[in-house]
């Protein structure tokens, strides 16, 4: 008798975690590998936030909390959403989870009936489709081309919606492309959604403050206030505040949804770490003078990586407006041969070639439902990024000039 449930046959391991694990295995063998596959800032958690966590321990704030999160944290989230996003929520419309990832999963698990559909613009974060499947739903993937800035267009959304559609997933700034939806973009999508009142919107805003140049962050519950009551706004402290390991995310939305999400979380994790919650109060409500410095450093790194990658034979890399990833096309290397005679047939082949030949770990675009691309995180030091990009340029130059017949 099989122990593994049948429905798990459709679920894939996270491609980002898998590539990072491969890199770690090579490092364990003594090989030098630069890991650019993980979406994790290399900055230390700011001192004021760390001190808040230490203070929580010293003050004995180490016991169970309410499933939805401690009141001071939900108050900080409420105030932040009003102050920065012009979104007004009551405390019982806010829930805190073990990272934004759990909040997204809780929402899907709480709302999807078997076979109901979730529209997911692609390229997309690797976990969205599998979380939908785990919750019993059906992901409906809509390809968004690079010529459209990797963003969902209203006409494509209209074609994707059916009577079974339950959610539209919107991630801006986007992982993996760095695409940022403007207020005008969101207003255009809202015009379609108004015609389909059964469709809810999950706005994943986790990279909210990591935008560059003339780009401006916008969220759909603010851009289209009439959709407020069918929007779940998700955010967290992992990326902007360099707190990936603290595992604190949050969601704000209609009370009937939040209540059921809390029921689900109460049967899984109960709540996120009490210590992390009190540190997150400081991250959200305390001094954030470090954020502009983080953003400026990320922008500098982005420009460096884009310039370097466009020197690599066969790669083309556009300039992203947000997050901390670039998503270059590797179409130009497909069909070329390695020195050993192996043909690079897919973006996965190319990612493995870079890992084995150049000692650089990247993630193939297929993991984000977009080929032929690779995702590179520039949340590493300038020195490490420079070395990695030079290795990628060298590895591309070693491929045969002629494509295999």
Tally of individual helices: 13
Question: What is the mean predicted local confidence, pLDDT?
Answer: 95
Strand content: 5-15%
Label the overall shape.
Answer: globular
SSE map:
Elements (H helix, E strand, L loop, with lengths): L14 H14 L5 E2 L11 H12 L12 H15 L8 E4 L2 H12 L5 E6 L4 H8 L3 E6 L10 H7 L4 E7 L11 H11 L6 E5 L15 H4 L7 E6 L12 E4 L2 H12 L7 H12 L4 H20 L15 E2 L20 H12 L1 E2 L1 E2 L9 E4 L4 H17 L7
Parallel strand pairs: 1-10, 3-4, 3-5, 5-6, 6-7
Antiparallel strand pairs: 2-8, 7-8, 9-12, 11-12
Task: Provide structural commentary.
The chain is of the alpha/beta class and 405 residues long. The protein contains 13 helices and twelve strands. α4 runs parallel beside α5, α6 packs parallel to α7 (183-193) and α11 runs parallel beside α13 (382-398). The model has no long low-confidence stretch (mean pLDDT 95).
